[in-house]
Amino acid sequence: MTDIIIENESHKKAHNDHIFAGNILILYAYDVGEDINLKKIDIAPDIVKAPLHLPKHFKQYHAPLAIERPHPHSTSYCISSKIHSFGAISLTYKIPFTDTLENVRLNCNKLAQKYQEQSIIDAKSIYRKIHPFITHPKFFQTSAAYVIVQVNPLPAILDLAQLQKQYGSTIASTLRFETEILSEFQKNEILDSSIGYFRGSLIVIDIDAAFVYEEDYDDIIDLFEFANIQQLELRFFDRLLDQQLDIIYEHETRKLPWGAYLPFFGTFFSDPVGQLRKLKVDISVITERLESSIKIAGEPYLSEIHNTLVDKLDLKNWSNGIDRKLSIIEDMQTVYQQKIDTNREDIFSVLVIILIFVEVIFGFLNYLRG
Q1: Per residue in 222-260, pLDDT tens?
Q2: Is residue 49 a contact partner of residue 65, using CB atoms and an 8 Å limit?
Q3: Which of 74, 104, 188, 346 is found 20 to 30 A from 26 (Cα to Cα)?
Q4: Domain ranges of the chain
Q5: How far is CA 192 from CA 222, 250, 303, in A?
């Protein structure tokens, strides 16, 4: 069964299109909170766990928890639903097709939109189940999605050179979700990033979608899912820091009560620099978890795919942008904290002067009485 509508036979024959078999895989990820207690979920009686098969290059100590979607659900195309300890839910949908690449191009965007709505429903049902185990639960602030068009090779009918020559424009347009054929320049720019390891295999990675011309693709999909999760978390932190910057720019920083300026007592009040340090630690811990969750040294093919994903999804720029925003916020909060410290010192100095003045007055009064 397929969700791709096959157009009429005359259209196919007129263009001499080949019929391909494969799958459209759609990856979705949603942020649902700051932290999720996977250990408690693992022993929860009303949550059905599913087998988790991680490739050898994924480290087990940061592994997500795979679960079954709560019933009822309206589609059987969801092949994976995972909960990640840093506060995310990821879903993978796999829709088989037997059709022309032209029809896949025409229907790919509609299919992605359809399953985006379905993914929100499915993620929401999971969120309700795990809500008690989430720190600061909220569904959802940030999401990320990626589409993979996987096609089974036809080596006896079509070699790789013929595929790229005859279907290069179609592949490029599909990856950009365009219903019109892209220019030659745009097509070449997209196809120039193609990767191939085995003879007759091809992977074209773009910003929001990829074309995978391989039959053995399970490990590759895990890399795409991992990169999509990375992008989700970086977007979340970028959004969080934007909110902090808006507060600073709009002068909405809450004024501290006078007690915050008093020595000793001030430690019981809100500490903006301390809050920033906690935020920096949270960001550092989660990014470290993500970066250290995968080890692909000695795997040149997987390393090339991962590096291309990092480049196409702009993960380094997202990370650098977060570092810059953290630096700006830290500078502003440091100035704010210095103001508090200065005011505390002034108050302390005034108190000392008052005490000395009172002592002088009492001494002078005692002298007059004597």
Answers
A1: 889 989 999 999 999 898 888 877 776 665 555 555 555
A2: yes
A3: 188
A4: 9-216, 224-369
A5: 23, 45, 18
